[in-house]
């Protein structure tokens, strides 16, 4: 306990500290030092007899007085304390450890605690905050300075708080204020430290803790030393821009990448920013992309605040960019790529591109002024020869009259055709240890051996991307002739490299794939499992957004290549890392004006009407129609930075209750998961002390049937062909419906369809604007959207998966079942009075008519489709389901019916997931191998886990769990993710004997290292569930815990 | 770079040596009628020269090189760059000498395949206008393909396993921009599938009942438009019908009955070059 106390106290002090300012209390791991410095910093404070002592006191004292939800106390560890009394009747099921699982809950949870402590470093995480702070990344960081870890801790909490508790809109800089709103009691303790004095005082009065006073005083003293900044630590970021100049910017230390990124874009006057990103070098000098949704500090760790602004997603067709300035920046990037050799090209191409560069930078060739050496400032190729320069000049002469913008366009038109354009290469080895390169690009993943392309996996071919340790895996959709999916594995140099390539894949897939030109819709991306997701706009979205750009073409200097070369002579160079520059922070980099002497003319923008603009506008229009009330989505398009931040904040409260219209989950998959043989699933997740809890809460509610109105539960797995041209109007409804229902089919053959789930909803709304379709479906959709931008991730997973699929239950189930960690389920059921309002919207939202006509009919008559689920479902499936789907997971196909049963058989649900995962992997590293059909088969490492399951059940449950199958009316699954928890909510409405019952099952997976307070997390989950559904009650709580046994690290 | 696919100004051909009939390599064991073969070849050259107006550079035959008429294997020309190959068949290695001289004379920048471990036959190289596919066959190996990739850096070079056939182009060729003529055999279809998988581009396909008929010569010539030299109805009646459906093309059936006996297809007999006026 002492340790925990200590760390907690440290954390509390952390926010006031600034590593750059040495006189502050900075060394938590050295108590003596700590004491000394702390007291030194607090002259006006009444120093107590011993700082260390008071620390302890302070940390301990709040606990008894804190509400029971703050589950840090050992004496009350049991989950039972969070449960209503009626729930204390336990029913337990266990697989691996019957003796333990049959123990009373209190014991059980204590035991959990012990296990946690065994398996991890207690210091690493703060006990009380564990629920919010879990992350496996800590494992990697053990060796790092402790304060660093704690900082991260803190930041995670912050994120958590924002996402869960606060409903307010706050830009990054106001995060602290936002936190004040958080009501969650177990988080209060943490938050308080970060709060501003005024509000802090209030809360303190309530709780009357000594510690708080100390903190205030500390804070005050810290602040007094910091005259410039009252509340925030500022740090100067240095960003190397594409033209080689430096941009410096003062940011709050805990700010997110967004702030810096937007500052840079503003400085550059760049609106089409989604193609760009900031990167930094990690310890191993590897380039890492800064995730702008996350705090900078957390990502760069101990590295310097030195970033590079560069193109992240190379637009396949640069002519579709709206603004010349964007194209100009892309040109700068490509010039770098070419001269550095990253983008190989032939002599002729070097010469041609070089000549366009000259034309853009210098204008027409001037025989008087431009002697041959005028180009020696430019680097056109890695090995620039005289011959090349002559050729460049020769071609330059031929571009007479071309404006800089035209020259850039020509440059890009040629550069984009280069085979390595936009290909992000990563060294790897294939299954046989042969050196290869993985190239991630807009279209998929390319495999190179030397310079030869030996294989290619287009995004549609890829079902899943995952990594484990230093291995990177892709799961391939079976071809027409093949029966089974195959998994291709690559060995990366190390774990970080594997993770990096995985992330790049996830991002590229999302950016380029999730909205195809044929379906210019906004898509969201969201699945469970791996926690990293690309949360920016997709290409289609950014195109839409930029089609709205309405400003005069900005003026900008094109003199970069010249400057770049000059900078070698002493002008500001890339790596300015002098922190003492902080004073000048916030000002532009010194280099920016350097080239006023350049001869480059101003750009003439707008001289070439953008052909694409028309197209995108059209689609935008359509989009707006669909959107109607669903304004948030459109906001997404043109929001400013502030908006983004506000938007995010405002939706954060919805996160937990995030809803999404979708058909019912696949039962078979579900069943499989639940009844889990120990060897059914593959989970590549946990590692070391990583733990995961899965909690599901079942809430159920009965209402009278007639009210549920028009809903059909049929599933149409029809595949929207990729090639389908954009279909306007009602046609798109079909598409969308198909897509919507898609999730029914496990492992859908087409990645894209899945993604379009969102679209579906929108389009339905649009198609019947005047239909009785409740607007409720719009909020649903909105939330989906928001989830996209919110989708949180933890940098830290040891491994992760990415399903190129929609956020369907199946996926979450898959993911869940694959996580050999701790799992808790809670099931709550209740009979509730009929609720029209409740059932209607969701029914509508989930309405997956097998065909447009059917759906319309249903709506007109306002009768529930009296079908059982199989009828339309099975029919449609047989007719349209792609063969592969059936082959792969035949049982999935008409899952709905069986699912209903599953829903009504709670005991099935209570089963815990398979602890041991074993799967077969086929490795095909190139087509040659494939052809030879010499497929090497490997086994994925087996993950050993311990599982425990405990069920608490309400007495009423029995009444519900009758065998009567009923008619499933709607089903939807909602997923939301926060830092260490992933919540999947299934809402099903069934019609049984004139009564409709709503059952909500929440499945909460809590993942993290040892120090999470699982009980608290569970309590929190239950509490939230109750808050979200005040008219329902908890009928059952199933706690399933899996602890992975220790595993070696790379 | 890719625009003007099929645009050619020059062609390099080589006279049929008398040794062809007896000594040329062949996968089958058919008798070649030398006279007929020479007659065929003359017609072929005449089409290039007179009908299509290409500037034809005719290399003299070398009796020591019975396969020398199949100039395609000796060089791969794309743009201004010519890669002088290292043919997979030992007996053919010297064919490149005359070819190199001719291409140098035409002002192309020459890349030579000096690596002793590399082999490459031009017949295994399919240039689609957007990328290269290189068949890995008995005549062409990985190293050869790598060198080709180095020579033509602008383009993706994907390797395609070729089985049961001499060359990649024994069953396919370009029949237009983005149009791949492909045979119906299993090997051909399999190769096509791999090509499709490997490519970022979408290609149309023209499926011919006969693999050999899928080797045709496409050009896009000023004033003539799409030109296609393809098999005659006498050789492959069914396939010829397929070609005849190409309405936009100027179709020129060219007989190849004799040369095919020594695995010579239509593309094999010329190296086509696009030389703009002296840049």
UniProtKB/TrEMBL annotation, chain A:
Residues 35-53, 92-104 have a biased composition (Polar residues). One of its GO terms (biological process) is actomyosin structure organization. Residues 1-214, 541-604, 710-750, 768-892 are annotated as: Disordered. InterPro entries: Band_4.1_C, Band_41_domain, Ez/rad/moesin-like, FA, FERM/acyl-CoA-bd_prot_sf, FERM_2, FERM_central, FERM_CS. Residues 177-186 have a biased composition (Acidic residues). It is found in: Cytoplasm, Cytoskeleton. Pfam families: 4_1_CTD, FA, FERM_C, FERM_M, FERM_N, SAB. Residues 9-20, 140-157, 187-214, 730-745, 853-863 have a biased composition (Basic and acidic residues). GO terms for cellular component: cytoskeleton; plasma membrane. SUPFAM superfamilies: PH domain-like, Second domain of FERM, Ubiquitin-like. Residues 235-516 form the FERM domain. Keywords: Actin-binding, Cytoplasm, Cytoskeleton, Phosphoprotein. GO terms for molecular function: actin binding; structural molecule activity. Residues 841-851 have a biased composition (Low complexity). PANTHER family: 4.1 G PROTEIN, BAND 4.1-LIKE PROTEIN 2. This is Band 4.1-like protein 2 isoform X4. It comes from Carassius auratus (Goldfish).
TrEMBL record, chain B:
SUPFAM superfamilies: Pentein. Belongs to the DDAH family. Substrate binds at residues 25, 67, 72-73, 92, 139, 262. This is N(G),N(G)-dimethylarginine dimethylaminohydrolase 1-like isoform X1. The keyword Transferase does not apply. One of its GO terms (cellular component) is mitochondrion. The active site is at 167 (proton donor), 268 (nucleophile). The gene is LOC113065750. Pfam families: DDAH_eukar. Gene3D superfamilies: L-arginine/glycine Amidinotransferase, Chain A (3.75.10.10). PANTHER family: DIMETHYLARGININE DIMETHYLAMINOHYDROLASE, N(G),N(G)-DIMETHYLARGININE DIMETHYLAMINOHYDROLASE 1. Keywords: Hydrolase. It comes from the Eukaryota. One of its GO terms (biological process) is citrulline metabolic process. GO terms for molecular function: amino acid binding; dimethylargininase activity.
């Amino acid at each position: 306990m002492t340790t925990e106390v200590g760390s907690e106290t440290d954390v509390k002090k952390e926010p006031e500290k600034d590593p750059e300012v040495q006189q502050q209390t900075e060394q938590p791991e050295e108590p003596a030092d700590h004491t000394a410095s702390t007291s030194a910093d607090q002259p006006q404070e009444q120093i107590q007899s011993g700082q260390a002592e008071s620390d302890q006191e302070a940390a301990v004292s709040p606990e008894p007085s804190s509400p029971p939800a703050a589950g840090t106390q050992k004496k009350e560890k049991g989950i039972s304390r969070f449960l209503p009394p009626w729930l204390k009747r336990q029913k337990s099921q266990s697989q691996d450890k019957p003796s333990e699982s049959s123990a009373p809950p209190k014991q059980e949870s204590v035991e959990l605690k012990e296990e946690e402590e065994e398996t991890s470093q207690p210091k690493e995480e703060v006990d009380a905050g564990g629920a919010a702070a879990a992350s496996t990344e800590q494992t990697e960081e053990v060796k790092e300075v402790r304060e660093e870890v704690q900082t991260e801790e803190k930041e995670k909490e912050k994120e958590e708080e924002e996402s869960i508790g606060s409903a307010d809109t706050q830009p990054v800089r106001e995060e602290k204020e936002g936190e004040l709103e958080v009501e969650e009691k177990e988080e209060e303790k943490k938050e308080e430290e970060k709060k501003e004095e005024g509000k802090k005082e209030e809360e303190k009065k309530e709780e009357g803790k000594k510690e708080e006073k100390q903190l205030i005083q500390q804070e005050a003293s810290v602040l007094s030393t910091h005259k410039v900044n009252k509340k925030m630590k500022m740090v100067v970021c240095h960003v190397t821009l594409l033209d080689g100049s430096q941009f410096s910017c003062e940011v709050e230390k805990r700010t997110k990448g967004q702030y810096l990124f937007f500052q840079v874009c503003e400085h550059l006057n760049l609106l089409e920013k989604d193609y760009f990103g900031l990167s930094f070098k990690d310890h191993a000098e590897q380039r890492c992309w800064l995730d702008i949704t996350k705090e900078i500090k957390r990502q760069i760790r101990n590295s310097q605040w030195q970033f590079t602004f560069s193109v992240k997603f190379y637009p396949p067709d640069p002519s579709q960019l709206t603004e010349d300035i964007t194209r100009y920046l892309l040109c700068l990037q490509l010039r770098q790529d070419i001269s550095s050799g990253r983008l190989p090209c032939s002599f002729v191409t070097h010469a041609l591109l070089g000549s366009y560069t000259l034309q853009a930078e210098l204008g027409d060739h001037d025989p008087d002024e431009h002697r041959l050496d005028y180009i020696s400032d430019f680097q056109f190729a890695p090995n620039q020869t005289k011959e090349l320069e002559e050729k460049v000049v020769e071609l330059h002469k031929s571009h007479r009259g071309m404006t800089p913008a035209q020259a850039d366009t020509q440059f890009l038109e040629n550069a984009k055709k280069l085979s390595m354009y936009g290909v992000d290469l990563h060294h790897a080895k294939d299954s046989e240890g042969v050196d290869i390169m993985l190239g991630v690009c807009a279209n998929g993943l390319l495999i190179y051996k030397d310079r030869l392309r030996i294989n290619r996996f287009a995004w549609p071919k890829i079902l899943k991307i995952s990594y484990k340790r230093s291995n990177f895996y892709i799961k391939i959709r079976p071809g027409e002739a093949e029966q089974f999916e195959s998994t291709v594995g690559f060995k990366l140099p190390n774990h970080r490299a594997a993770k990096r390539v995985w992330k790049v894949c996830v991002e590229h897939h999302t950016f380029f794939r999730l909205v195809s030109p044929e379906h210019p819709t906004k898509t969201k991306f969201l699945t469970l499992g791996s926690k990293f997701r690309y949360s920016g706009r997709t290409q289609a979205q950014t195109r839409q957004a930029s089609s709205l750009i309405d400003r005069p073409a900005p003026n900008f200097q094109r003199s970069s290549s010249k400057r770049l070369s000059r900078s070698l002579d002493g002008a500001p160079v890339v790596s300015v890392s002098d922190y003492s520059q902080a004073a000048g922070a916030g000002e532009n980099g010194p280099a920016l004006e350097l080239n006023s002497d350049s001869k480059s003319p101003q750009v003439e923008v707008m001289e070439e009407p953008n052909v694409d603009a028309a197209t995108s506008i059209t689609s935008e229009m359509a989009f707006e129609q669909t959107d109607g009330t669903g304004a948030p989505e459109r906001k997404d398009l043109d929001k400013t930075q502030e908006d983004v931040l506000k938007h995010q904040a405002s939706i954060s409260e919805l996160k937990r209750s995030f809803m999404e219209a979708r058909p019912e989950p696949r039962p078979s998959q579900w069943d499989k998961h639940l009844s889990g043989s120990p060897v059914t699933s593959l989970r590549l997740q946990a590692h070391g002390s990583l733990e995961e809890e899965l909690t599901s809460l079942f809430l159920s509610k009965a209402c009278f049937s007639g009210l549920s109105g028009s809903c059909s539960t049929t599933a149409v797995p029809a595949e929207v062909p990729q090639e389908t041209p954009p279909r306007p109007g009602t046609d798109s409804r079909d598409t969308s419906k198909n897509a919507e229902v898609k999730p029914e089919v496990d492992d859908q053959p087409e990645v894209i369809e899945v993604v379009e789930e969102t679209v579906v909803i929108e389009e339905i709304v649009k198609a019947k604007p005047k239909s009785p379709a409740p607007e409720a479906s719009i909020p649903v959709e909105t939330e989906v959207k928001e989830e996209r931008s919110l989708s949180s991730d933890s940098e830290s997973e040891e491994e992760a998966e990415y399903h190129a699929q929609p956020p369907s239950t199946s996926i979450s189930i898959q993911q869940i079942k694959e996580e050999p960690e701790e799992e808790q389920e809670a099931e709550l059921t209740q009979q509730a009075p009929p609720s029209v309002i409740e059932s209607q919207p969701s029914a509508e939202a989930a309405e997956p008519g097998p065909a447009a006509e059917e759906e319309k009919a249903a709506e007109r008559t306002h009768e529930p489709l009296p079908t059982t689920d199989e009828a339309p479902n099975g029919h449609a499936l047989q007719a349209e389901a792609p063969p592969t789907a059936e082959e792969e997971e035949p049982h999935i196909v008409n899952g709905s019916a069986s699912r209903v049963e599953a829903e009504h058989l709670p005991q099935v649900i209570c089963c815990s997931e398979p602890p041991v995962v074993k799967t077969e992997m086929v490795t095909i590293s190139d087509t040659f191998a494939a052809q030879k059909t010499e497929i090497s088969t490997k086994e994925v490492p087996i993950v050993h886990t311990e599982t425990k399951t405990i069920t608490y059940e309400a007495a009423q449950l029995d009444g519900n769990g009758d065998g009567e199958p009923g008619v499933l009316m709607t089903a939807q699954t909602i997923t939301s993710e926060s830092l260490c928890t992933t919540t999947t909510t299934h809402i099903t409405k069934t019609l049984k004997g004139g009564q409709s019952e709503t059952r909500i099952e929440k499945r909460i997976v809590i993942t993290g290292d040892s120090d999470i307070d699982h009980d608290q997390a569970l309590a929190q989950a239950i509490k939230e569930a109750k808050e979200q559904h005040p008219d329902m009650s908890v009928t059952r709580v199933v706690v399933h815990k899996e602890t992975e046994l220790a595993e070696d690290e790379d | 770079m890719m625009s003007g696919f099929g645009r050619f100004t020059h062609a390099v051909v080589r006279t049929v040596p008398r040794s062809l009939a007896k000594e040329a390599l062949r996968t089958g064991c058919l008798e070649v009628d030398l006279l007929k073969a020479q007659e065929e070849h003359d017609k072929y050259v005449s089409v290039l020269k007179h009908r299509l107006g290409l500037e034809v550079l005719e290399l003299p035959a070398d009796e020591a090189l019975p396969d020398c008429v199949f100039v395609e294997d000796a060089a791969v020309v794309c743009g201004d760059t010519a890669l002088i190959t290292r043919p997979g068949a030992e007996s053919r290695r010297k064919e490149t000498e005359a070819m190199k001289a001719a291409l140098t004379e035409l002002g192309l920048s020459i890349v030579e395949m000096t690596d002793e471990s590399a082999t490459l036959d031009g017949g295994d190289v399919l240039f689609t206008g957007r990328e290269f596919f290189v068949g890995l066959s008995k005549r062409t190996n990985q190293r050869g393909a790598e060198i080709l990739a180095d020579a033509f850096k602008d383009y993706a070079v994907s390797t395609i396993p070729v089985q049961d056939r001499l060359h990649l182009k024994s069953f396919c060729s370009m029949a237009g921009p983005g149009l791949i003529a492909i045979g119906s055999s299993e090997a051909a279809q399999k190769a096509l599938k791999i090509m499709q998988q490997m490519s970022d581009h979408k290609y149309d396909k023209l499926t011919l009942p006969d693999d050999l008929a899928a080797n045709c010569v496409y050009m896009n010539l000023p004033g003539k438009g799409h030109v296609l030299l393809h098999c005659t109805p006498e050789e492959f009646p069914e396939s010829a019908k397929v070609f005849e459906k190409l309405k936009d093309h100027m179709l020129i059936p060219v007989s190849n009955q004799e040369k095919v006996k020594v695995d010579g297809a239509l593309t094999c007999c010329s190296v086509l070059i696009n030389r703009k006026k002296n840049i």
